[in-house]
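Weekly puzzle thread! Below is a chain. First person to post its structure in token form gets bragging rights.
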Amino acid sequence: MKLYKSLLIILITISCSPKETSNNLAIIINSQDSKDKEMAYKIIEFTFVGVRLRGRLYLPKNKSKEHPLVIMAHGFSATINGMVADKYAEEFYKAGFAVLLYDHRNFGISEGTPRQELNYWMQCRGYIDAINFAYTLKNIDKNKIALWGDSIS
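Winning reply:
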């Protein structure tokens, strides 16, 4: 199992670079803030293989510097709303990280059919497009992007 995780990390690292962009990448950041002003986030969308992946972008209040980013997605059958992933995102945010938390294709607030279908390779591709999306964001340190997953994420 460790070998598979290592290979996945290597594949994602090789597939992504600051200059690489996806042809189908759409940057849409809505101005909706969370209801909890201490835990402010923006609702975001980016395009992934013809569907929109949606999630939250938590940005630290200090806009004068670039922040390290943690890209996160949920595990098997979960979503970003009210399960484990959002709690972890809030803790990373409190520790000073920017956080991009999104629902995988076919889950939660993201598009895709059939709903609730797991496809590991598509989820890996979702991380790649999330990284490409992150490269377009201001106040993100492009050299300090980490991936985090829970369960089968």
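Puzzle host: Confirmed. Bonus trivia for everyone else. The radius of gyration is 14 Å.
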